[in-house]
Automatic annotation (TrEMBL):
Domain CNH: 91-254
Subcellular location: Cytoplasm
Family annotation (Pfam families): CNH
UniProt keyword annotation of Hydrolase present: no
Annotated keywords: Cytoplasm, Protein transport, Transport
GO annotations of cellular component type: cytoplasm; membrane
Species of origin: Rozella allomycis (strain CSF55)
UniProt-recorded name of the protein: CNH domain-containing protein
Broad class of the protein's primary localization: cytoplasm
GO biological process, one term: endosomal vesicle fusion
InterPro entries per record: CNH_dom (IPR001180), Vam6/VPS39/TRAP1 (IPR032914)
Length: 462
């Protein structure tokens, strides 16, 4: 199953003052705003509205016609004006920088970590100015790094290193030949050397399985359970736990420039003047697709995973699982699934259609019992037992009522017959009441006093 899809986010990054040679060199976002850095020293600001992206403005960086290599949003700018909050402040001689968010005593603090000549500097951004908080001296100057509030991983002079900020301990890792790539993961870091992606923990120990890239990569991002690697020809999607390649997306045009996170859902990359987005398939749709492909074990694993628990959409998932087990003749398991949902339309429509019931049972016999016709009556009894149990559930009777009272597909006699057969007396009482069938309603109340509605009884006497 392919976990991502590719779409065009922005067909062309030009505006009225842009020239034909402009191209994006970096990309980032905050909320609905997307920021592009360009090869002529400009910032271009866009706003995402549903499926559309609207151009807002451009702002010069004051660096001439140079590439904007990196953008980090640290809370110092207002959108959409792109104006500093307070005074202006510039840090010079910076090789690389990252923003770090820490929470101290429930107060969120944003710091900017920069690498300068043989040092890390931690700066807080306040009132439009950078203020030095901490300085860590090094033996060399990091070319690129990733940090959190406890540790960092950096690359310099062809080797990766980890630094623990608590005691400034340096841990040497593997080397690299060309451009270094580092990304943060929960347990530590992902580093790239040659055609390999290696996961390490904070102590430098290799963890997880190694990624094997098909081509030299241009950029890399980590998205929950996946690693997205950008090459000149393809986007390679890897399972970050097993390490296997699970999807290859061809890039539709040449001259790949950069890649970055647009928001929690999208990863964007630039080719010439076009911005593409890599969109993950929503977790509930992944589960549904697995169920439809009869990959039930994988669907259940994903259903019980942390990823799904963050974005629960249970109703449709339980219905899909219930439908699968229903079609397998596993009525006990199907009942457990259907008991967890409010909308029992599928079961109701099945129960009132004898042809559907017969077709279902025949398919179960053919697929699960090698065509043994003697199983028909046994399965039929078990199926109706499941339906009766579902219809008698107090948690479902309101939905039964809603379905019956709002449908024009079923005549009254069928509804009444179905409710009586399945002993759904609360739903039957409400149906009689709604349809002003007072004789039938009072007869039902005489035999079941717990169903009597005093409000309706008083209204009927007035």
């Amino acid at each position: 199953m392919e976990p991502f899809s590719l779409s065009i986010l922005l067909p062309e990054i030009t505006d009225s003052t842009s020239n034909d040679q402009i191209s994006a060199t970096c990309i980032t976002s905050q909320d609905d705003y997307i920021l592009l850095g360009t090869n002529d020293g400009q910032l271009l600001l866009y706003k995402k509205k549903d499926e559309m992206v609207e151009y807002l403005m451009r702002r010069g960086m004051g660096v001439g016609k140079k590439d904007v290599k990196r953008i980090e949003i640290v809370g110092g700018y207002k959108f959409p004006e792109l104006k500093p909050v307070g005074g202006n402040s510039t840090l010079k001689g910076v090789e690389w920088f990252e923003s770090v968010v820490s929470v101290i005593a429930d107060v969120k603090r944003v710091e900017v970590v920069v690498s300068r000549r043989r040092m890390f500097q931690f700066c807080k951004f306040y009132n439009g100015r950078f203020e030095l908080v901490q300085e860590i001296e090094l033996m060399e100057t990091p070319d690129v790094f990733c940090v959190n509030e406890y540790m960092g991983c950096y690359g310099c002079n062809g080797r990766y290193k980890i630094i623990q900020f608590k005691n400034n301990e340096i841990i040497e890792l593997i080397g690299y030949e060309n451009r270094p790539f580092i990304r943060m993961i929960n347990e530590g870091f992902l580093v790239v050397t040659g055609m390999l992606g290696i996961f390490v923990d904070g102590s430098g120990n290799a963890i997880r399985n190694t990624l094997h890239f098909m081509n030299a990569i241009v950029a890399i991002e980590v998205k929950e359970f996946h690693v997205v690697a950008l090459t000149e020809e393809n986007i390679l999607i890897y399972n970050s736990v097993q390490g296997d390649l699970c999807q290859t997306i061809p890039i539709p045009m040449n001259n790949v420039k950069c890649m970055g996170r647009i928001n929690d859902e999208l990863i964007g990359f630039c080719c010439n003047k076009t911005i593409f987005s890599i969109i993950p398939l929503p977790i509930d749709k992944k589960i549904i697709r697995l169920i439809e492909n009869l990959e039930i074990e994988e669907a259940m694993k994903l259903f019980e995973s942390e990823e799904y628990l963050k974005n629960r959409k249970d109703e449709l998932i339980y219905e899909k699982f219930g439908s699968f087990y229903l079609n397998q003749g596993m009525f006990d398991v199907a009942k457990e699934m259907f008991e967890k949902i409010k909308d029992l339309s599928l079961i109701i429509e099945l129960s009132i259609d004898e042809k559907k019931i017969e077709k279902l049972l025949n398919e179960i016999i053919e697929n699960q019992f090698q065509g043994k016709r003697e199983m028909f009556e046994i399965l039929k009894v078990n199926l109706f037992e499941m339906i009766k149990d579902l219809f008698q559930s107090k948690e479902n009777y309101l939905d039964l009522i809603k379905f019956f009272l709002n449908t024009n597909k079923i005549d009254d006699l069928k509804i009444i017959d179905l409710l009586i057969k399945n002993k759904s007396l609360v739903a039957l009482s409400s149906f009689y009441e709604k349809n002003l069938m007072e004789k039938e309603l009072f007869d039902l109340w005489r035999s079941n006093e717990s169903l009597v509605s005093l409000d309706y009884f008083i209204q009927s006497l007035s």
